[in-house]
C-alpha cells in the first residue's frame, strides 16, 4: 500500500477523485483567508490559496499535535507523512470569479449569466515535499460551455439541491452534467483537481512512495 498523501482540503470531491485513482488520502483541512487581493488575477488567486493551504498544514504537521492521529508529526522513518497537496478551484466569467452562491437568488443570477456561454474553470494546486522542503505550484484551465436555459429550467435544476456549495452554482459530476454542452480540457479539473497534471508533478518531484502504481 502506498504511503498517505495529506490533502489540505475538506473537499469530498477531491478526496474521492484521489481515492478512486488509488491514492491513500489523509484529509487535513486548512482554514485560511480566501479574500481576493486588489488587482489579483484569478490564476494568481487560486495558486496563492492552494499554496497557503499547504503551508498551513505543513506547519501543523511539523510543529503541532494533531489530535485525531494522537502524535506529533515530522518526517521520520517511523512517521512517513511526507507529501502535502492543496488546491483551489474557481469559475471565471468575463475575468470575474464566480464563487459559491450566497442565496437562492444569487445562484439563479450566476446560472443565468453562465447559460449559453463559455466560462473558464481554473484550479491551482500545490504539492509540498516535507523531506526536502520543496514545493511545486501550477494552475490548469478548462473551458466549459453551457447550453441555453430559461429561468424555469434553472429553477428546476436548483431544486435538486447540489448548487449552494459549488463555485458557479453547478456540479459537473452530478445532475449539473446535463447543463454542459461542451468541455475543452481536463474534466477532473472542473470537478476540483486536474489529476493528469497533479500526477505528472508528483512524478517530476519524485513522489514514488504515494503513487498507486
General description of the model:
The chain is of the alpha+beta class and 213 residues long. It has one domain (4-205): Alpha-Beta Complex (Maf protein). It is 31% helix and 26% strand. The chain is built from six helices and nine strands, in the order E-H-E-H-E-E-E-E-H-E-E-H-E-H-H. The chain has helices spanning 12-21, 42-63, 104-114, 151-158, 187-191, 195-205; strands at residues 4-7, 24-27, 65-66, 71-72, 83-93, 96-98, 118-129, 134-146, 180-184. The strands form two sheets. Strands 1, 2, 5, 6, 7, 8 and 9 form a seven-stranded mixed β-sheet that branches. It has a two-stranded antiparallel ribbon with strand order 3-4. The longest helix is centred in the N-terminal third of the chain and has 22 residues, at 42-63. The protein is elongated and about 55 Å long.
List keywords for this structure.
9 strands; elongated; about 210 residues; two-stranded antiparallel sheet; Maf protein; 7-stranded mixed sheet; alpha+beta
Question: How is this fold's topology laid out?
Answer:
Elements: E1 4-7, H1 12-21, E2 24-27, H2 42-63, E3 65-66, E4 71-72, E5 83-93, E6 96-98, H3 104-114, E7 118-129, E8 134-146, H4 151-158, E9 180-184, H5 187-191, H6 195-205
Parallel strand pairs: 1-2, 1-5
Antiparallel strand pairs: 3-4, 5-6, 5-7, 7-8, 8-9
User: How many helical elements?
Assistant: 6
Helix/strand order, N-terminal first: EHEHEEEEHEEHEHH
User: How would you sum up the global shape?
Assistant: elongated
Q: Cα distance, first to last residue? A: 10 Å
Beta-strand residue percentage: 25-35%
Assembly level: single chain
Second-tier CATH architecture: Alpha-Beta Complex
**Level-1 CATH class name:** Alpha Beta
The overall pLDDT, averaged over residues, is 92
The helical percent reads 25-40%
Q: How big is the Rg?
A: 18 Å
Biggest β-sheet description: 7 strands, mixed
- Unreliable stretches, pLDDT < 50, 5 or more residues? 69-76
CATH topology: the name is: Maf protein
How many strand units? 9
Number of domains: 1
Going by helix content, strand content and strand pairing, the class is alpha+beta
Amino acid at each position: 500500500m502506498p504511503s498517505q498523501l495529506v490533502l489540505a482540503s475538506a473537499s469530498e470531491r477531491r478526496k474521492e477523485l484521489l481515492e478512486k485513482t488509488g491514492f491513500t488520502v489523509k484529509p487535513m483541512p486548512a482554514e485560511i483567508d480566501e479574500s481576493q487581493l486588489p488587482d489579483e488575477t484569478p490564476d494568481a488567486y487560486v495558486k496563492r490559496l492552494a499554496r497557503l493551504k499547504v503551508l498551513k498544514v505543513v506547519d501543523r504537521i511539523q510543529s503541532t499535535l494533531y489530535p485525531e492521529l494522537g502524535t506529533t508529526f515530522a518526517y521520520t522513518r517511523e512517521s512517513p507523512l511526507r507529501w502535502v497537496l492543496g488546491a483551489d478551484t474557481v469559475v471565471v466569467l468575463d475575468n470575474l470569479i464566480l464563487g459559491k452562491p450566497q442565496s437562492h437568488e444569487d445562484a439563479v443570477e450566476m446560472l443565468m449569466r453562465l447559460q449559453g456561454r463559455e466560462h473558464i474553470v481554473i484550479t491551482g494546486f500545490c504539492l509540498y515535499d516535507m523531506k526536502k522542503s520543496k514545493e511545486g505550484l501550477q494552475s490548469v484551465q478548462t473551458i466549459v460551455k453551457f447550453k441555453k436555459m430559461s429561468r424555469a429550467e434553472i429553477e428546476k435544476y436548483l431544486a435538486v439541491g447540489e448548487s449552494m456549495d459549488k463555485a458557479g452554482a453547478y456540479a459537473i459530476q452530478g445532475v449539473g452534467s446535463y447543463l454542459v454542452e461542451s468541455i475543452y480540457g481536463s474534466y477532473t479539473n472542473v470537478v476540483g483537481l486536474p489529476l493528469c497534471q497533479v500526477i505528472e508533478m508528483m512524478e517530476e518531484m519524485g513522489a514514488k512512495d504515494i503513487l498507486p502504481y
